[in-house]
Design a protein that fits this description.
The complex is a heterodimer. By secondary structure, chain A is mainly beta. Chain A is built from no helices and eleven strands. In chain A, strands 2, 4, 5, 9, 10 and 11 form a six-stranded mixed sheet that branches. Chain A has a five-stranded antiparallel sheet with strand order 1-3-8-7-6, with no helix packed on it. The radius of gyration of chain A is 13 Å and the shape is globular. By secondary structure, chain B is mostly beta strands. Helix content of chain B is 0%, strand content 49%. Chain B has strands at 5-7, 10-13, 19-24, 31-37, 44-50, 53-56, 65-68, 75-79, 88-95, 102-103, 107-111. In chain B, strands 2, 4, 5, 6, 9, 10 and 11 form a seven-stranded mixed sheet that branches. In chain B, strands 1-3-8-7 form a four-stranded antiparallel sheet, with no helix packed on it. In chain B, a hairpin with a 6-residue loop joins strand 4 and strand 5 (44-50). Chain B is globular, with a radius of gyration of 13 Å. The chains are: A mainly beta, B mainly beta. Chains A and B meet through strand 4, strand 5, strand 9 and strand 10 of A and strand 4, strand 5 and strand 10 of B.
Chain lengths: 112, 112
């Protein structure tokens, strides 16, 4: 049973524009959410996180929004750069729970 | 090294062979996780160690899968009598706590 879903397998945007990656979850006990970025032949690397007590967390060009009532989070990248091209995984867990669930990933391509 | 190191990077095994995959976590990280990532999917949780104690092995798909971390540092994931459905990338991750995970590059297993 897939508790974290990323329904868009791919996304293509122009350099300088906004990239919006979406993620939905089904488990209402999840209260800690993370985004990981993965380049080919490398392991995922942590990008940004948010806990359920917040609805927004910003780090430079990256902002994560959380809508708990809709069980939805999104990652905004502004402005998008060609180096942002990668697969982005959404992950969720209950606080201090080791069983972190991942979405299937969205491949982002930023065109120069 | 500074990051999580996994070996071998690539392993081809004949069906029925036993394989062992090694993970060297970041020094000082007490938590260590193994994930299985099938093609086009997100990482799926296999097992979790805190120091040398295996606290959760609920994600191991069968009793052919066995993991150990005898001295609380290096971990080995062993798969006995490999099957074709075991073909995947096996990711190891470590963390100081159960928040942000630092992933290795993965070991790609192909079972013929």
């Amino acid at each position: 049973d897939q508790q974290v879903k990323q329904n868009s397998p791919s996304l293509s945007v122009q350099e300088g524009r906004i990239s919006i990656l979406n993620c939905d979850y089904t488990n209402s006990m999840f209260d800690y959410f993370l985004w990981y970025k993965k380049y080919p032949a490398e392991g995922p690397t942590f990008l940004i996180s948010i806990s359920s007590i917040k609805d927004k967390n910003e780090d430079g060009r990256f902002t994560v929004f959380l809508n708990k009532s809709a069980k939805h989070l999104s990652l905004h990248i502004v402005p998008s750069q060609p180096g942002d091209s990668a697969v982005y995984f959404c992950a969720a867990s209950e606080w201090n729970n080791n069983d972190m669930r991942f979405g299937a990933g969205t491949r982002l391509t930023v065109k120069p | 090294g500074a990051g999580v190191s996994q070996s071998p990077r690539y392993k081809v095994a004949k069906r029925g062979q036993d394989v062992a995959l090694r993970c060297d976590p970041i020094s000082g990280h007490v938590s260590l996780f193994w994930y299985q990532q099938a093609l086009g999917q997100g990482p799926e949780f296999l097992t979790y160690f805190q120091n040398e104690a295996q606290l959760d092995k609920s994600g191991l798909p069968s009793d052919r899968f066995f993991a150990e971390r005898p001295e609380g540092s290096v971990s080995t994931l062993k798969i006995q009598r490999t099957q074709q459905e075991d073909s995947a990338v096996y990711l190891c991750a470590s963390s100081r706590d159960t928040g942000e995970l630092f992933f290795g590059e993965g070991s790609r297993l192909t079972v013929l």
